Amino acid sequence: MDLKGKKVTLHDMSLRDGMHSVSHQFSTDDMIRMATALDAAGMPMIEVTHGDGLGGSSVNYGFGLHTDQEYLEAVIPTLKQAKVSALLLPGLGTVRALEEAAGYGISTIRVATHCTEADVSEQHIKKGRELGLDTVGFLMMAHMTTPEALLEQAKKMVDYGANCIYATDSAGYLLPDGVTDRIAILKAEFGDEIEIGFHGHHNLAMGIANSLAAIEAGAGRIDGSVAGFGAGAGNTPLEVMVAVCDRMGIETGVSVDKIMDVAEDIALPLMPTPTRIDRDSLTLGYAGVYSSFLLHAKRAAKNHGVPSREILMELGRMGAVGGQEDMIEDVALEMKKKLV
Amino acid sequence: MAINCAMIGSGNIGTDLMAKLMRSPNLNPVWMVGIDPDSDGLLKAREAGLKTTHEGVDGLIPHIEEDNIQIAFDATSAYVHGENNRKLQEKGVLVIDLTPAAIGPFCVPPVNLKDHVGEQEMNVNMVTCGGQATIPMVAAVSQVQAVEYGEIIATVASKSAGPGTRKNIDEFTQTTARAVEIVGGAKKGKAIIILNPAEPPLMMRDTVHCLTETEPDQEAITASVHAMLKEVQKYVPGYKLKNGPIFDGNRVSMFMEVEGLGDYLPKYAGNLDIMTAAATRTAEMFAEEIENGTLTLKKLV
């Protein structure tokens, strides 16, 4: 694979996807320490919000220790070069929340829908563009549809005004060929007019391999997370990605030494349990289940005395999509009924 | 004598509503209004012998007097409801709003239908499908003890969410959250909607979480929830309490499933049924008032 000379923009997820791993309990100090270290390492983009995006704080997903406003207002003024993005899931986050976040100084809004439901993003993408933000259409659980169908959804988001489209492997299910097919079809349609991005999860240890496949197929933005700090077995570990890119001659602008130190000295100590591929997170990738379900399933398993792996497998069979965390307890209760 | 009605909007909701109105003893569907002459809803309405127009509400207005239309149901979108409402009220037509525009007061029949009697209202709002499916349960808890926070999650099959719903997704969450407070009785409300494209389509699912101010009275809440369930089942027989109420500290959670009657879309689309059945029940109450003279329709001037 020859990717020498390619330029990619890395986007760190630790302060958003990583929120899942800490049940949305980062302090503003934790966020500032992590963000300023990432900034100093040359990370160009950092996402900051509740794990489920703007307005995610809830019983269903977990209440954040602080509001999105408190996190964004704490982090943004401390950064020298890195730009901050926020995630927004229509049906949960609103245009009003987007306008407020723009007021706190975000540069990028990433509007996320299930891979077949792009038309719920119209209000939010239009508003993002109107506010002059870098506006990304983020198609989640991209393994659940074909590359051709994904392209049709991406076209809708581009019509609404998105200047960048992501194929998002929320379940960490895709293998490199599946990534190549999806990114290539988007690239073939949009050329250089629209940026293409890839967001991976490491549930099958494919984070790096999938990201390289995405770059080869034309992706210019790659999501990851220092020390993989993110839902499930985490995101593509960025310190590894930076080192690999450096070896391959892919330009990221991020310092290999510094990003390793951020991962080891700041990110790891913040993890309540190490982010790794255990049998539950492996099940996510194997069965194609939304990575954020992991800790909710572990909790429901504990509360209701049923195995978490079985809960996750059942959610996979049901075709649960991102955001359906409320089904986890329901599935556990149904399984418990059958035990009696 | 039945009261003559018009349906504005020939999408999923309007077409499902038509089936409900045709069975009503005191409502008579006369007109179906759409904007696309080839829409399935208009086709079904013509087959059922209704008058139709594809010129929007303007196509209906000239016929209101001669056809004595007294109640109109607006199932278009929050964006156009304001204008539709103005034109209809100029003609003295009572408007049942099935969009999340929420110009008029909220109506969730098992909770507050009686509050609308004798109020001379000319526009009532049916909140949203998610609101109709969950607010009775929030109210069932808040009728027992104070609810600090009420949160609802509505999951509907993608096939049952038409373009209007999709374009109005913010209005859905905001209007539902407000009605969780105003009608449900929670001090703070939050609403989340999720579309799921699974095949075969999944049944409408709704989760209700209430955080009570003090330790929940489990026995009284459970009794209240089951009593409310029976009230909703009177007009939506497929409304089920799948799990709960479960109690975890001050959290009370109910897991609902709503199976529809399969009037227009198949039975998975309980979200259509709960909305159209609630609107029909509300209109029937107003029709009784019109017939017994306690409600006089006034033209807006």
Account of the 3D structure:
The complex is a heterodimer of chains A (340) and B (301). Helix content of chain A is 46%, strand content 12%. In chain A, helix 6 (147-160) packs across helix 7 (176-190). In chain A, helix 8 links the parallel strand 7 and strand 8 (221-224). An eight-stranded parallel barrel of chain A has the order 1-2-3-4-5-6-7-8, surrounded by five helices. Chain A is an alpha/beta fold and 340 residues long. The model of chain A has no long low-confidence stretch (mean pLDDT 97). Chain A has 14 helices and eight strands. Chain A is globular and about 60 Å long. Chain B is of the alpha/beta class and 301 residues long. Helices cover 38% and strands 26% of the residues of chain B. Chain B is built from ten helices and eleven strands. In chain B, the strands form two sheets. Chain B has a six-stranded parallel beta sheet, sandwiched between helices. Chain B has a five-stranded mixed beta sheet with strand order 8-7-9-11-10. In chain B, helix 4 links the parallel strand 4 (69-74) and strand 5 (94-97). In chain B, helix 6 runs parallel beside helix 8. The two termini of chain B are 28 Å apart. The relative contact order of chain B is 0.17. The A-B interface holds A 58-60, 90-92, 94-96, 114, 116-117, 119-120, 122-124, 144, 303, 318-321, 323-324, 326-327, 329-330, 333-334 and B 149, 151, 153, 155, 158, 163, 166-167, 169-170, 172-174, 190, 192-199, 202, 205, 207, 209, 211, 242-244, 246, 248, 251, 253, 255.
List keywords for this structure.
A: 340 residues, 14 helices, 8 strands, B: 301 residues, alpha/beta, six-stranded parallel beta sheet, five-stranded mixed beta sheet
